[in-house]
Amino acid sequence: MSQYVSRLGRRSQAAPTRLRLHRRPRRVAMLSVHTSPLHQPGTGDAGGMNVYIVELAQRLAAINIEVEIFTRATTAALPPTVELAPGVLVRHVDAGPYEGLAKEELPAQLCAFTHGVMQAWAGHRPGHYDLVHSHYWLSGHVGWLAAQRWGAPLVHAMHTMAKVKNANLADGDTPEPAARVIGETQIVEAADRLIANTSEEADELVRHYSADPGKVAVVHPGVNLDRFRPADGRAAARARLDLPQDALIPLFAGRIQPLKAPDILLRAVAVLLDDRPELRSRIVVPIVGGPSGSGLAKPEGLQKLAARLGIADVVRFRPPVGQDQLADWFRAASVLVMPSYSESFGLVAIEAQAAGTPVLAASVGGLPVAVRDERTGFLVRGHNPADYARVLSDFADDPTLASRMGAAAARHAQSFGWDTAAAATADVYTAAMQSYRRRVRSHHG
User: Fold this and answer.
1) Does pTM top 0.70 for this prediction?
2) Residue 360 backbone phi and psi in degrees, to 5
3) Same domain? 139 vs 245
4) Where does UDP-N-acetyl-alpha-D-glucosamine bind (predicted)?
């Protein structure tokens, strides 16, 4: 896959600077139907994608690309437009009831959402938006129509893919519906450019969805390095969060659903304590996040599992927290545990490392890119709790392991700044605009 990326990269570098600046979009319509950039990550369907959209939009605005983000209105309390930052506007579109609409019910609201987007555009002169950038397949369908109607190129980011998720399902998890697979296939065909988080995701687009390799560009998501940094260290963070100074603290942070596999961490802790009961007095297992997706069906499932495994006394359930406090949880932890079945990138893995904390993760999706195995953390093949317990045992035995690996992790995360991601995304926009113009010219020629 890397040859596709380097070819695309070379082409954009070879373009004269003057031309490139002229060809950059001035204003981008960004579409995020099912999750608002104003929502708290870790609640409902809000997660890494929210953070991605907010950070990317702000950094694009900083390099003079205005961004208007269209998202579904989920409360009457918010005005139709909110300025998120200078050059970044969030537009709330009425589509379906404000409350209680599951992500699975949203396809039926795409028509209403598209209507709202078209109404917002109707008030502008032609050519108001130079490009459409859609996130996730629901937005891709709206973007497909909007881009055609506006005579603008479409750039699409999948974030997750039905075929990949269905190939890596957790036990008892619900597969993604056929309608989503069909929808994703149509968007891959329609988009002028597809942005993948990693070269593995780019390969999956080509393999599973027959994407044209020349249309796929790899842009690693970034991390807010001002917010996620080691700061005043582990001891201070533990004091602020009322956590014991000398404890082994394996942390889970994210949406509580089978896909993210927080149960594997609990089972691993149970295996560890069965094997080494003396650790019980110095282990604390925080689970920070709210139920989401298929996890909403059994919101208490994880608490019940902890009780059944006999480890309820060492597990602390905490609701989702704001980004600044999340950074403190990362600093306080001995290790972040991510036993996910599927991750397109795994933004929290980079956030934790930027805060100086190593990561123990499943070797899936983008996690092998995010985590340098045995240097900034450990990658585990499969989901056997005993394999995770073995790594936790190493952290328990070597108190310096967390800080040694954490220092390497913080250095590794430095290469994932959002400025780099925004500049690379702007290059993809430029390439999309060029190929769109060529396509229009050959069509009319």
Assistant:
1) yes
2) -110, 110
3) no
4) 40-41, 48, 255, 260, 321, 343, 351
